[in-house]
């Protein structure tokens, strides 16, 4: 009943679209698509704007009695590949996938990478169209090859402005592809994040590629998309460089990671990062991570541990909570230090975290004030005392149990995050 024609990135319609349009009783599409198509005089036309009214109109049209033996025939014209972040999802949800005959075109993402002579089986594609661009920004901070589908308020300028404040922005180039497939009007421009932020880009932007050009040529792949996640986490302390036992034990990290839930598109803070072990583990699981450490040698240690594990962590030297005002809002926060300022740090983190705050403490005296700070911020609060004993060798080829220092782990979860989750 509904034929969906992907027009690709060019103005001419695909050859098989002409026959479908000739028999259409309703044609739906953007103004430029309707203007470029040869439509039957008898066909109704709907110019696409907000989707709900268009879907309602299609449903009403399909309910009309047919003037001929055939059913009412609806043709929807859509840019690029309509099954790739396109109108096919909305049509299938309303009318069922079995009612759709989809004729895909070449997506703007495929076209943009083709213009650069790059494969994109290892690219991460993220849509910022009609969405908060923060997820796209976080993905761009982590991965070397990202395609961002843009929209009003989430275009090259906004993406560049968010990226230029990060320490790794000098490693990124933005490729802004505009009016793809339109001949002389097509533009593919390489700019820095700062240059992108300083320009007005108009409405012709098709897609923005964010590239770390030192890492855009990947080995041969068998699975498309971002690399698979790590085969293990809660790594042994020996996997990190640290000073004076200033590292979260792997038992603590295991539960902390479970409560933080780091994932692709998230931004995680690690406050009082020490060795950066929690920061590195969150980055290995796909999150963009900012680690805050007060000493210069601590910051260098965090960076070295991140480099050793092949991930990027933005390491910031400063004292919390004062330095936190300079950071983009997080989804989740791990606090492994803070001293007497801990309640103030927890309060500030809870005010800004979208999902959760996890706090590790060795001192019993700090537990009540930390719990009160989480509850006062409206978070649900839970916690546990972790006290583990590890196998340790003894002479004579026997083992004993060696106790580690007990650690209190408290976590607060924003109420709506418990029931709704966080959409990406």
Describe the structure.
With 424 residues, the protein is an alpha/beta fold. α12 packs parallel to α13. The protein contains 14 helices and 19 strands.
Largest sheet: 7 strands, mixed
Unreliable runs, pLDDT <50, ≥5 residues?
none
Radius of gyration, CA atoms, in whole angstroms: 26 Å
The structure class reads alpha/beta
State the end-to-end distance: 32 Å
Share of residues in helices:
25-40%
- Count of helical stretches: 14
Question: What oligomeric state do these chains adopt?
Answer: single chain
Strand order of the largest sheet: 13-12-11-14-15-19-16
User: What does the overall shape look like?
Assistant: elongated
Arithmetic mean pLDDT:
91
**Percentage of residues in DSSP E strands:** 15-25%
Total number of beta strands: 19
Give the helix/strand layout.
Blueprint: E1 2-6, H1 15-22, E2 26-29, H2 31-36, E3 44-47, H3 51-63, E4 74-78, H4 88-95, E5 100-103, H5 108-116, E6 124-127, H6 134-142, E7 145-149, H7 156-164, E8 173-178, E9 187-191, H8 193-197, E10 205-211, H9 250-260, E11 267-271, H10 277-284, E12 288-293, H11 296-308, E13 314-317, E14 332-335, H12 342-352, E15 356-361, H13 367-376, E16 380-386, E17 389-394, E18 398-403, E19 407-413, H14 415-420
Short description:
The protein has 424 residues and is α/β, with parallel strands linked by helices.
């Amino acid at each position: 009943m509904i034929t969906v024609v992907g027009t690709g990135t060019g103005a001419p319609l695909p050859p098989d679209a002409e026959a479908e349009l000739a028999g259409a009783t309703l044609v739906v599409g953007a103004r430029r698509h309707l203007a470029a198509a040869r439509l039957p005089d008898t066909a109704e036309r709907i110019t696409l704007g907000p989707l709900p009214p268009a879907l309602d109109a299609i449903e009403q049209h399909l309910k009309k009695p047919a003037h001929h033996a055939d059913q009412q025939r609806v043709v929807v014209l859509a840019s690029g590949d309509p099954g790739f972040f396109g109108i096919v999802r909305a049509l299938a949800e309303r009318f069922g996938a079995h009612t759709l005959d989809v004729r895909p075109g070449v997506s703007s993402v495929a076209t943009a990478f083709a213009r650069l002579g790059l494969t994109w089986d290892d690219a991460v594609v993220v849509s910022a169209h009609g969405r908060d661009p923060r997820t796209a920004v976080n993905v761009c901070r982590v991965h070397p090859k990202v395609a961002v589908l843009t929209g009003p308020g989430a275009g090259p300028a906004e993406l560049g402005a968010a990226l230029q404040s990060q320490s790794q922005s000098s490693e990124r180039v933005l490729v802004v592809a505009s009016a793809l497939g339109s001949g002389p009007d097509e533009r593919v421009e390489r700019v820095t994040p700062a240059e992108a932020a300083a320009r007005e880009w108009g409405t012709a932007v098709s897609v923005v590629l964010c590239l770390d050009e030192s890492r855009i040529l990947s080995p041969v792949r068998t699975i498309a998309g971002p690399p698979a996640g790590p085969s293990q986490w809660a790594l042994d302390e020996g996997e990190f460089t640290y000073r004076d036992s200033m590292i979260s034990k792997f038992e603590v990290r295991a539960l902390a990671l479970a409560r933080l839930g780091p994932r692709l598109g998230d931004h995680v803070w690690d406050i009082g990062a020490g060795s950066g072990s929690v920061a590195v583990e969150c980055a290995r699981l796909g999150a963009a991570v900012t680690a805050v450490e007060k000493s210069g040698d601590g910051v260098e240690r965090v960076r070295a541990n991140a480099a050793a594990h092949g991930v990027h962590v933005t390491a910031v030297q400063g004292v919390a909570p004062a330095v936190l005002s300079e950071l983009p809002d997080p989804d989740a926060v791990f606090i492994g230090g803070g001293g007497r300022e801990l309640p103030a740090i927890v309060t500030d983190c809870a005010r800004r975290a979208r999902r959760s705050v996890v706090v590790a403490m060795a001192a019993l005296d700090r537990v009540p004030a930390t719990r009160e700070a989480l509850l006062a911020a409206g978070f649900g609060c839970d916690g546990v005392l972790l006290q583990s004993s590890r196998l340790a060798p003894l002479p004579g080829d026997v083992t004993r149990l060696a106790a580690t220092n007990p650690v209190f782990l408290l976590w607060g979860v924003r109420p709506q995050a418990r029931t709704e989750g966080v959409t990406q």
